[in-house]
Amino acid sequence: MHLTIDELLNYTEEERAKWEAWFGAHGNDPLKFALPMDVHPNIGALIPHCFWAEFFYARWIGGDILTEDRIKEKSESLSADNADQVWCSANRLDLS
Length: 96
What we know:
single chain; 4 helices; 61% helix; mainly alpha; 96 residues; 0% strand
């Protein structure tokens, strides 16, 4: 099997659209569902983590290394309890 990065990103975009629609229909409350984790204490904090992994590796493959400081700066600007902001950030993440 041979997959390109574009095929993988298209797949994740498709999956992201499904979850965005689901959260759009259910509002912000599901984002508050608690998780037994210190770093990501709820679903709203975990979702952006998944996006960061995707964007980190896409940038890495392209020769751009995302430093911990760049990721932290962008993460702190997100509101993990607002579904619209979480999904908007995933769809238009600017890591410059």
